[in-house]
Every structure is written in C-alpha cells, then in structure tokens.
Specification:
Blueprint lengths: L2 H16 L1 H12 L7 E3 L2 E3 L1 H14 L4 H7 L6 H22 L5 E2 L12 E2 L4 H23 L3 H30 L21 E2 L2 E2 L8 H20 L4 H17 L3 H19 L10 H27 L4 H13 L5 H19 L15 H27 L8 H24 L7 H15 L1 H4 L16
Antiparallel strand pairs: 1-2, 3-4, 5-6
Helix pairs in contact: 1-2, 1-3, 2-3, 2-7, 3-6, 4-6, 5-6, 5-14, 6-16, 7-8, 7-9, 8-9, 8-10, 8-15, 10-11, 10-15, 13-14, 14-15, 15-16
Length: about 475
C-alpha cells in the first residue's frame, strides 16, 4: 500500500462511520487522483478512487435498507438496468473475444512495449481483467450513489460535497503549478506513483500546462470540463449561486491553462450548445423568477461582451495576438499533423478495422488502446455494447427529466448532473483510450437518476426544513 493509499484508508474509515454522504464525497475526492495507485496487487494496481468505492459500499450496507436501495435502480426500465446489461456484456466480451479472435486481429495493446505502442496479434491480457474490474466498479458506484441520494435533503448535501470536489480539483492543480515554479516538483511525487507513462511537466508559451493530479494535461482538462458543466448548470439554476459561480470560474480558468486540445474543443462545443439553447430559449428547465431570468441574460450577454472587449484589446495592442496565436497553433491548428496526432489517428483507424474484422462483436474491453471513447466503445464492445450504452445514456439524459413540484431545487440539481455527464462524454470522445468514463461520470449519473428511482421519497412533503436550508449531514 502506498502513502496516499494509507491516507485514503484512514479518511474513508472516518467518513463511513460518520455518514454515507461524506463517504461518497471521499470517493469523489479520491477519483481526482488518477496518477496515483493506492494498493499494488502483483501486476495490478488499485487507484484511490476504486479503493474508496469499497468503503462506500460498507457505509451503505451498514445503514438500514442500504442493499435494497442499491439494487433499486437496476430494474427495468430504469437506466441502471441498461448499465447492468452493458456491464455484463462488457465483462463477457473482455474475457471471451480475445480468445475467440486470438492471433487473427492486429491491435495496439494498452501497455507500451519498450516505451512504444506497436501492433501485436490479439490475445488475452491483463488489460481484459483490469477493464472488466473498472466496469464492475462503475456499476457499483452508480448503484451506491442512488442508495445514498434517497431523499431531497441527501441530494442537496451531496451537491455541497461535489462543489468541494470541483474546487479541490483546481486546488491540487494550483499547488502543482506552484511547486513546479519554485523548482520543487518532487513534493507531489506521492500522488504520481503509478507506473504508467505520465506527462506532468509540459509547458506551452513558457507556461506550465495545468495537470493537477492527473497523468497528463488532456486528462485533467477533460475531467475539468465535466465538472465545469456541472457547476455552471448549478449556477444557472440558482443552486448555491455564490459557491457554484466560484467553482465555475475556477474550473473554466483551469481548462484554459491546461492548453489541451481536448479541453478547448469539448469546452467550446459545450458552451456553444449552452449559449444558443439560452439564446433561443430552448432549455426550458428553469424557473420564471427574476434571479433565474437575470442569470439567463448574463449568459446570453457573454458572447457580444467578450467579443467587444477582445476587439478593443487587439485594437490597442495588436501584439496581444502573438501568444494567443502561438498557443492556438500548438494545441489545435498543428495538433493533427503532430506526431501525437498522427499516432492517435492511427489507433482509431486500427480500432475501426478491428470492429469490422470481428464481425461487429468487438475485440473485448482492455484488448487495445484507442484515442476516442466512441471508437473504443465500438471497437471493444461491438454493436451490442453501443446499443446498450446508447440506451443507458438516453435514459439518463431524457427519461430522468421528471418534474418535482414539491422540490423545484431537485430538478435543477439533476439537470446539472445530466449536464456534467454530457460534458464528460464530450471530452472522452476526443481523447479517451478506453470505454471507461470514470467514477465522477457515474456519480453524476447516479445523482441524475436518484429522484426517478426513489419516487416515493421525493414525492413526500418535507417533515421539517426544506432541502435548501438543510445542514450538510445525513
């Protein structure tokens, strides 16, 4: 067990005895540490986030009706049913397809051979076991999140915690940047102890790319975009507006300073959709109060105001465009023609070829490395996996839009969770090497689905104080 693993064991031990909500937030914090391992078991490693999930399971089990609540969201036609079916198929494909198509298909393995990724014949590998484990943990955290968020008050308390996770993610990145600037990057070596390749010391235009506790800036940017979408939608919905606004601004700056193509493109697509949805009043999931309308007008005014300010600044100082142009060339314009861009494109082409050569069944999760979540899902899980995941996502994004007349705040929170899930999928579609969307995605998915699962609790009038005045305890 590593030092950071021991820290999270102690933290989880305290949290699981205090409340389920606090234990869920510990999982969210641990999920940020993607460049670390907590426990090393032979050739396999367990990340802090995956280890914390098991403590959350204990926290739910020791509470009344905890196990029953965990399985409640996995029945048909709720979204969890399709996630369960996807998990079963993914694990089955990971264990059987590499044997069925052994030595018949060329793939790029998850682990590099001699520091380079080269094609090898398909065969069973440790990656099949590890990815199967990750899929099972994702299903587990989804069910456990639904078990934790059984009432509007508990959902509200989880929102407080997730906003803390958002700020914590940026705080780690700031500390990392400071230690790099003062010439002491080894101070944070305890959170970069994983044995896979890491690129946390890159710089663009003389500035260090924010990496935080992730292996590389693109992964940090992708996760930060997802958290930004969650916090930004909370602010637009009037949920804890001061704290969510602070988190949104901090996360937005974090994405910009990561200098990542993944972050820039996914952020641009997300903001483009949000802006025009507000401009044409397509998104009608908001209230009609004055404060909500004012926030909508603020979002609409962002576009012309920022364009005007930028035009004035360039007119006064034309040389301001030079560093911006340099960053654009390095991160976007020349990315496709760079060695990394060419390599990642070849991975995706190899994945599509593997899908065809496997007759649409896929080569099994963990069998090959790719550079897009969409291609990874197609190449590894085949037609069946794509259909099951698409149904699950449709259920999360559309079927869970049930209005709650007693608790209007619940509608805004679940909409924020759906928004975060959508942004996580956007960023993963640009750079993810496997079909694993991560723990934070499934925590948000569980938050979005919880009111639909626990209809009776969310349809009951409050016994004491409403959710927006609840103390952060459960």
């Amino acid at each position: 067990m590593s030092l950071i693993g021991l820290f999270f064991v102690l933290l989880s031990g305290v949290a699981l005895l205090r409340s389920q909500v606090q234990m869920l937030i510990v999982v969210g914090i641990a999920a940020v540490f993607q460049a670390a391992y907590a426990v090393n078991i032979g050739p396999a490693t367990l990340t802090p986030g995956h280890m914390a999930v098991f403590f959350l399971g204990l926290a739910v089990i020791i509470r009344q009706k905890g196990i029953e609540a965990s399985f409640r969201g996995l029945v048909y036609p709720l979204p969890g049913f399709f996630l369960l079916a996807l998990t079963i198929w993914a694990v089955f494909s990971g264990l059987t397809m590499p044997r069925l198509f052994a030595n018949e298909i060329q793939v790029i393995p998850l682990t590099a051979e001699g520091g380079q990724y080269v094609e090898i014949p398909l065969s069973p590998s440790a990656g099949n076991i590890s990815q199967s484990f990750y899929f099972l943990v994702n299903l587990l955290i989804f069910g456990l999140t639904i078990a934790v968020v059984r009432t509007p008050r508990m959902l509200w308390n989880v929102v407080y915690g997730m906003l803390f996770v958002c700020l914590f993610n940026i705080g780690v990145a700031v500390v990392d940047s400071i230690t790099y600037t003062i010439g002491a990057p080894d101070l944070l070596s305890f959170m970069r102890n994983a044995d896979y390749g890491q690129a946390h010391s890159q710089a663009v235009a003389g500035m260090k790319r924010l990496t935080g506790s992730y292996p590389e800036p693109s992964e940090f940017a992708g996760a930060t975009v997802g958290l930004f979408a969650f916090a930004f939608r909370l602010w637009r919905g009037g949920i804890r507006p001061q704290l969510s606004a602070l988190a949104s601004v901090a996360l937005l700056v974090g994405v910009l300073l990561a200098f990542s193509t993944t972050g820039y493109v996914s952020l641009a697509v997300y903001l483009f959709i949000v802006y025009w949805a507000n401009f044409f009043w397509i998104d009608r999931g908001f209230g009609n109060d004055v404060a909500t309308k004012l926030r909508r007008y603020v979002v609409i005014s962002f576009g012309p105001i920022l364009a005007l300010l930028f035009a004035i600044a360039v007119a006064i100082r034309p040389d301001l465009l030079n560093p911006i142009a340099a960053v654009f060339d390095d991160t976007i314009a020349n990315k496709a023609s760079s060695q990394s861009g060419i390599e990642r494109t070849s991975w995706n082409l190899g994945g599509l070829r593997a899908f065809v050569e496997s007759a649409g069944l896929g080569v099994g999760i963990g069998s090959m490395r790719l550079s897009s979540f969409v291609v990874a899902l197609i190449a590894t899980t085949g037609v069946v996996g794509v259909l099951l995941f698409s149904t699950f996502v449709y259920s999360v994004l559309r079927v869970t839009q049930r209005k709650n007349t007693l608790y209007p705040e619940v509608d805004q929170i679940t909409a924020a969770a759906r928004s975060g899930c959508f942004a996580f999928m956007l960023s993963a579609s640009l750079a993810a090497s496997t079909p694993d969307l991560g723990l934070l995605f499934f925590i948000l998915a569980g938050m979005a689905c919880a009111p639909t699962v626990h209809v009776r609790q969310y349809s009951s009038p409050p016994m004491q104080q409403p959710p927006n005045t609840a103390v952060a305890t459960a």
